[in-house]
Amino acid sequence: MFTKYKPTWMVEAIYQITPEQLKKRNFKAVLTDLDNTLIAWNNPDGTEELLAWIKEMKEAGIPVIVISNNKASRIERAINKLDLQYVQRAMKPLTKGFKEAEKMLNLPKDQILMVGDQIMTDIRGANAAGIQNVLVKPVVESDGWNTKFNRSMERRIMKHLWKKHPEMSWRKTIDDE
Which of 27, 32, 72, 129 is most exposed by smallest CB count within 10 Å? Predict the structure, then answer.
């Protein structure tokens, strides 16, 4: 029952995913959640580490698309200087936003990787859309009011998943075994 919430990989931060790792697994694009995956939910300016990661992806020819349940004005405020495309009001965990991003990229699902910090929305949605995914630790420990309920549910689901899938563990890269 909870396998629909099981991430393909668990990596500590999105910045640890490199173009080399992606190319090795034939991923040609990255979809990413916004809040607490790319940036802290309460700091829309991002970090130097984020800017370096985006630059590295662009130089490698790997498009990054933000897929967020937020409205356009919130997303634009956060990614304005990053020059990234986005899908607004993605309605994760439904597949609507994933399908939009897939059309924007014009790539098959098996060449797209989703990265997010929530199993209830990002991972569940990617799994429903048939897209491999990476669960990352939240950028900051705190959450907006609308995410707190999901976090309590996630803790319960993760306990169950770890019990049933002891191989699930936090890694430094998607290549770690």
Answer: 72
